[in-house]
Amino acid sequence: MFSKHDNSLLVRAMRGLPVERTPIWIMRQAGRYMPEYRAIRSGLSFLDLCKNPEKAAEVTLLPIEMLNVDAAIVFSDILVPIEAMGCPVEFGDGGPRLPRPVRDVAALTNLRIPDPNKDCPWAAETIRLLDKPLGDIPCLGFAGAPFTLASYMIEGGTSRNFTHIKTMMFQKPELLHGLLDLISETVVVYLQSQIDAGAAGVQLFDTWAGILAPQDYENFALPYQKRVFDGIGRSVPRILYVNGCGTYLTQMKASGADVISLDWRVSMRAARQILGPEIPVQGNLEPSRLYGPNERTAERAHFVLKEAGPTGHIFNLGHGILPDVSVESAVALVKSVQSFRH
Question: Is 70 noted as a catalytic residue in this protein?
Fold first, then answer.
C-alpha cells in the first residue's frame, strides 16, 4: 500500500533506495537540551507529558522547526506500555522507578497484554495529531524491545550490574521467558497501533541487550526481537537499535530488521562489511562530539558519511543527544550533514 511518505528521503534510505543526500534525525531530538521543551513541560511531570497528545505533538515538532531534521519521532517513552501491562512506573530526578518489580510467578500472573487503543493510546494519538502539521515529513514510532523492558521491570529501574535479571536468567530462565513472551505480545500491538496511526517507520530500542554474552543474546534478546518484527509485518520499515551492538551485528541482521542502528563504538566501515551492502544502517556519531567545536564535529560527521556510502544510510548519533548540548551545536550538525554530497 502506498504511503505519502514512501518518497521521503528517510523512507527511501531505510529501504536502501537511491537518495539525493543522506537524511538525518537525532535520537532524543526533542528533549531537555531545548529551552522550548522545558517551557512546554513546565508544570507537568514527564509521564503526564507523554500522556498529553497535544503537548507531546508540540514537543515532537520542536526539532522539525528548530533543527530542520528530516524526520520526526513521536515524543513518548519506552516504559509507557509497561504501566499499561500492570507494572506501575514513576519518574523522578534519578530516572524511572518501578516500585513493584516482577521477580516471581505471582508478579508475572498479575500482568496482562494491554489494549493500546484504550490502555496506552497516547503515542498513536500524537502521531495522528501530527499528520497535518508535519505534511510530507515522516514521523517514526518506537517501542522498547522485550529484553530491555524486562530489564526495567525486573530491576525496578535502571541498573549498574543487572543483578536481578541475570539471577533470573541463570536460576529461573523459564520465568524470564514467560515475561519476555508477554512483553513481546504487548510490543507488537503497541507498535501496530502507531503504524495504524500513520507512523512512516518504527524503531525498536533494545538498549540493554548490550549487557549480554553472545549466547545469552541469542536466547533472551534475538528471538523476541524477531517475534516483534514478525508480528508487525513489513508495511513500514523497521529499525533495530542495541547500545553496544558491535558484538551482535550478525544476530541483529538475523532479527529481520530492515535497518541496523549503530552506536559509536563500532566503526561504520566494519559494520558495513559485516552486515553487507544490502542492509541499510543508521548512525553513528558519538553524542559527546557535540561538545566540541562545530567544525570538528562536521569533520567527524563527514567521515561517518564517507564510510557509510551514498545509499542505505540514515545519519544519527550513536545514542541519544545529551541534555547539556547546545541547540546551536545540534543545528550546526544537521546543516553539515545536509550539505554533504557523496
Answer: no
